[in-house]
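User: Show me a protein chain along with its predicted structure.
Assistant: Here is one chain, sequence first, then structure tokens.
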Amino acid sequence: MKISRIILAFTWALCMIPTQTGICQTPELVIQKGHIGNVNDVVVTPDGSFVLTGSDDCTVKFWDLKSGKEVRTIDVFSQPVKKIAVSPTGNVFACGSNKKEKALKIFELSTSKELISLPAVNGEILDISFNTDGSKLLAVIEEDGFVTKVQVYDWEKGLLLKSPD
């Protein structure tokens, strides 16, 4: 009962503030029902139409940016999704997992079809990013909690190009 009074008071107070047109608008309460675990990363597609979120529940969710509604969910790993990156072209996205799964995967953005799982990931993915033309994927990887290195992949060929010692 007390919460409903607070919401009612908040709604009334907001309605007392006129908009640019001089007409009060009633606020809309949007409650997101999405991930069942912590959200670890969020990215916006280059065209600004979708938001992708990665979570401890091992999924990536797609959200329509205008409506705020969930569009689809894909199960990515058996462990948490730690990082997400969308290519500058907007045709693919990459996901990185934690130190238990040690995985880096690329998916088609429009269908969520897995295109490739990249080799030689030996730790937790701390960050991932595509280069400017989207042909390479860079991954910052932490091994054994101490050593951090950057790996560069030609993701289309599934090749590890560079991994500094």
